[in-house]
Amino acid sequence: MLGVFGRVSRVRELGLEPDVVYVGLDRVNRFAEGVVPLLWVPKTSELEEGVVDAYGRRHLFAFGNSGCIANPRVVGRALKAVERVFELGFRRVMLDAIRLPSPVNGLLFLTTCFCSHSLELCPELGYLRNRVRAVLHSASAGDVVEVLEELAHARTAHVEYMLSVLYDMARELSVELVAAVFPYPLSRYVGQEPAVLKRYLSEVHVMLYHRCPGAACLNAELRGLTGTLNILRLGYGEIQEVIRSITGLELGVKEIAELDNGIALEHVEKLMDINRSIYGDAFTPILWLDDEVAPRLKRYLKKHRRIDVFAPLDRYHQAGLSDT
Ligand SMILES: [Zn+2]
To answer: What is the rounded CA–CA span in Å between residue 101 and residue 60?
Structure first.
């Protein structure tokens, strides 16, 4: 079973036929067999719907297209989109970016979200805001991991809130929810706790991109995290410690210095095994289809039975999945 985001012809060149093609909901006008609409959940262009950092400043995150998933207007828009999926005749939707900011967005990974809706959803954020400010002034690896752990709790509540609201509507309409999520354990720190995802999603598709430029690409996320830890003046040893704690990966100093070139597929394969053991039959890896992954694809398909690939479009620059 092969699912494709992006350029289908790239997959056919390899002698494979996709079973499913994921297409951004904005680009879907009518029902088509074998197509699953893809919904960018936190979508907004309004700064007022953005996330608020520990200093009260508002930001749009991911590709500058995302707001806080506790904001009622963002929630309302996502609900409308699920309704549209149903009206078009689809019975399944792939949710994308159901989360809060990730390391690729630099300091926002540590400093959001403290908007009034988030504070209402998780009152403990009021106290946490001061902890975050303190860590920005002076931090050890332990402090950073600790504060991220506390943020993870609040972020999980955000994701659970959005998912539960979408789930109630989807169930009423007999629309199945599946989602593209970050790999565990990094997923926890953007709010995607496996126990919560398993409660609402019939399939969990895990983005395991080894070499690409944007949000959810592991090398870009790790580079973002390293940059943030540099700003906090952590040394290399401490940076390695934080990376190990929150991503489960052991990266050498040379690998950290060369993240622009991607990360080794061995790391991706390790995360694939960890995530399969967590999600079981609900697990589908999404791989970044380049010349390195292509020769291994048939072997991966044999091992995991269901695989998705992201085949970058020629016009691909820094777009989200939903732009495919
Ligand atoms: Zn918020």
So the answer is: 9
Residue 278 lies in a domain: yes
Radius of gyration of the chain (CA): 19
Ion ligand 1: residue ranges with CB closer than 5 A: 68, 70, 113, 115, 118
What is the whole-number distance in angstroms between the Cα of residue 318 and the centre of ligand 1?
24
Residue 185: domain span:
2-316
The four Cα atoms 182, 156, 35, 80 give a dihedral, to 10 degrees, of -140
- Answer whether residue 324 is part of any domain: no
The answer as to whether 116 is a domain residue is yes
Report how many domains make up the chain: 1
Is residue 321 a part of any domain in this protein?
A: no
What is the full per-residue pLDDT of the chain (324 aa) written as tens digits? 999 999 999 999 999 999 999 999 999 999 999 999 999 999 999 999 999 999 999 999 999 999 999 999 999 999 999 999 999 999 999 999 999 999 999 999 999 999 999 999 999 999 999 999 999 998 899 999 999 999 999 999 999 999 999 999 999 999 999 999 999 999 999 999 999 999 999 999 999 999 998 999 999 999 999 999 999 999 999 999 999 999 999 999 999 999 999 999 999 999 999 999 999 999 999 999 999 999 999 999 998 889 999 998 865 444 455 554
Distance 78 CA to ligand 1 centre (A): 16
- Cα(178) to centroid of ligand 1, in Å? 23
CATH number at 191 reads: 3.20.20
Task: Quote the CA–CA distance of 247 and 268 in Å, as a whole number.
Answer: 11
| Residue 115 CA, ligand 1 centroid: distance in Å | 4
